[in-house]
Specification:
Largest sheet: 7 strands, mixed
Number of strands: 11
Low-confidence stretches: none
Mean pLDDT: 94
Strand order of the largest sheet: 1-2-9-6-5-3-4
Helix content: 40-55%
Number of helices: 12
CATH superfamily of the largest domain: Dehydroquinate synthase-like - alpha domain
Order of helices and strands: EEEHEHEHEHEEEHHHHHHHEEH
CATH architecture of the largest domain: Up-down Bundle
CATH class of the largest domain: Mainly Alpha
Structural class: alpha/beta
Strand content: 15-25%
CATH topology of the largest domain: Dehydroquinate synthase-like, alpha domain
């Protein structure tokens, strides 16, 4: 792909571009233009840094660059990891003109963004996501934060990046399981808001799973367009943005109950989407389409056997609980999502029991 694709997240003077293309890391993009001060801190992990840190260094020649490499995995998405990043900033004597750069997947991005939100009450940061899940979802929208033993992403802040730079070539080195996990968020975007996109995914899922570069770029762009439009309309999730949590109430509970990192986020969301479809009474033909697409992406369609009671307890701490009532994103049809509570008393317990049987 010769020319990168660009879209804008429209948030007034806090808006920012999302740039998508091949061969952007190295000398393919003027990253330094988005680093206004002399100092920057690249936050990565032990898996990604050996592959992509040197190309990033070349893009930032002339800047005072320091690095922090965290341990890899959801288990390390903690306040302790945020503390490690902030300790490095303090040690460097970083001022408010420092820029943090997240080089890695969703865990690295969330930790880096939260550290940037906290340090000196907010400094600039840039997302350079290297996993499909981060490219299509977590890098866009400004949600940052870490997990707590009591629940997923309970500690965090809204803090928008200055730039999201997506080099599709990073997907070449992504393990198959991680790639499938990213496809869960692609499917989610289509399922909630774009029926035609869902049909396009059904038609092209085979080539996408074989990592066809042109089709992947189109899928990443469309998912980012959907996410950007929702965020622009509801930055702090007071209404429409909650639709992006389709499958997540169940999914976060699965991650919590199975132990963070045992199931990847996308795997848990995939099973959660099927549970949410059952909860909302999605028509059988539509539910079958959703199940088939999730399975074709190499994702689970049912949760691990952690117990209905454990899942229910974990969901009680979900951020979408209001007035002690669990709220869920459900589907009237593919492409038509809504937020609500189950119509039938006992419906949630029935879905949990069935899924864990």
């Amino acid at each position: 792909m010769a020319n990168p694709l660009t879209l804008k997240v429209e948030l007034g003077n806090r808006g920012y571009p999302v740039v998508i293309g091949a061969r952007l890391l190295g000398e393919g993009f003027d990253l330094a233009a988005f680093v206004s001060g002399p100092d920057c801190l690249v936050v990565s992990n032990e898996t990604v840094a050996p592959i992509y840190l040197d190309p990033l260094r070349r893009m930032l020649a002339g800047k005072n660059l320091r690095t922090v490499n965290l341990r890899d995995g959801e288990a390390y998405k903690t306040l302790a990891s945020v503390g490690t990043v902030i300790d490095e900033l303090v040690s460097a004597g970083a001022n408010r003109d420092v820029t943090l750069i997240a080089l890695g997947g969703g865990v690295v991005g969330d930790i880096t963004g939260f550290a940037a939100a906290c340090y000196m009450r907010g400094v600039a940061f840039i997302q350079v996501p290297t996993t499909l899940l981060a490219q299509v979802d977590s890098s866009v929208g400004g949600k940052t934060g870490v997990n707590h033993a009591g629940g997923k992403n309970l500690i965090g802040a809204f803090h928008q990046p200055k730039l999201v730079l997506i080099d599709t070539d990073t997907l070449v080195t992504l393990p198959a399981r991680e790639f499938s996990a990213g496809m869960a968020e692609v499917i989610k975007h289509a399922a909630i808001l774009d029926r035609e996109y869902f049909a396009w995914l059904e038609k092209n899922i085979g080539r996408l799973m074989h990592r066809d570069r042109e089709l992947l770029a189109q899928a990443i762009l469309r998912s980012c367009e959907i996410k950007a439009a929702v965020v622009a309309a509801d930055e702090r999730e007071q209404g429409r943005r909650a639709l992006l949590n389709f499958g997540h109430t169940f999914g976060h509970a699965i991650e919590n109950c199975s132990g963070y990192g045992k199931w990847l986020h996308g795997e848990a969301v995939a099973a959660g989407m099927m549970m949410a479809a059952d909860l909302g009474g999605l028509a059988a033909t539509e539910r079958d389409r959703l199940r088939a697409l999730i399975a074709a992406a190499g994702l689970p369609v049912a949760p691990p056997a952690v117990g209905a009671g454990a899942l229910r307890a974990a969901m009680e701490l979900d951020k979408k609980v209001q007035q002690k009532k669990l709220r869920f994103v459900m589907l009237r049809a593919i492409g038509d999502a809504y937020v609500g509570v189950p119509d039938e008393p006992g419906r949630l317990d029935s879905v949990l029991e069935t899924a864990n049987s």
